[in-house]
Amino acid sequence: MAQLVVKTYSRALFQLAQEENIKEKLEEESIVILDVLKNNEDFLTLLNHPKISKDEKISIFEESFVNLSNELLGLMSVIIKKDRYMYIIDILKDFLEIIKEDKGIVTASVFSAKELDEKQKAKIEQRLENLTNKKVETVYTVDQSLVGGLKIRIGDRIVDNSIKGRIDLMAKELLKIQLA
């Protein structure tokens, strides 16, 4: 249910941005709102407070983001009126992902057992761009539980070429043999 709500609002925002030719503006504004919400838990607590009326929450939002476009303010008002404020961060994140996708950019999460040097990162990024035929933004994370190798996630696809992944796969295969 939550994912459906997030997708519905983020796609509606993207469609509006496309129709009004304001994708870049709404992208920038969304980044600002996300930054404020992520770095200010009190603001989210305020939006979630049951004793503050919806109209007051909308006023607080409007006063906090004075230079926000009418389109984004309107969406935030609808989200607050429909008691969906707990999804604001996810809606804006999903909207930004749709914008990236529209620009031909994908985000890849690369997990490795140890820190990769710049040469290794450049090689991985080049390979991913060749495979996807898109510009790739990479986020690198060190996960020592992988033991060695890499695990890469792009969207809902995962390529696990880590030692841990191989051991897990072998364990599953052995269980199948024992159960047969």
Entry summary:
Belongs to the ATPase delta chain family. The chain is of the alpha+beta class.
Question: What brief labels describe this structure?
Answer:
180 residues; alpha+beta; 2 domains; 4 strands; 16% strand; proton-transporting ATP synthase activity, rotational mechanism
Structure description:
The chain has 180 residues and is α+β, with helices and mostly antiparallel strands. It has 2 domains: 2-101, Peroxidase, domain 1 (Orthogonal Bundle); 105-179, no CATH class. Helices cover 63% and strands 16% of the residues. It has 8 helices and 4 strands. The protein has helices at residues 2-19, 23-39, 41-48, 54-64, 70-81, 88-102, 118-132, 163-179; strands spanning 105-112, 135-142, 149-154, 157-162. The chain has a 4-stranded mixed beta sheet, with helices on both faces. Strand 1, helix 7 and strand 2 (135-142) form a beta-alpha-beta unit. Helix 1 packs antiparallel against helix 5 (70-81), helix 1 (2-19) packs across helix 6 and helix 2 (23-39) packs antiparallel against helix 6. The two termini are 39 Å apart. The mean pLDDT is 91. InterPro entries: ATP_synth_OSCP/delta_N_sf, ATPase_OSCP/d_CS, ATPase_OSCP/dsu. This is ATP synthase subunit delta. It holds the Pfam family OSCP. Belongs to the ATPase delta chain family. Keywords: ATP synthesis, Cell membrane, CF(1), Hydrogen ion transport, Ion transport, Membrane, Transport.
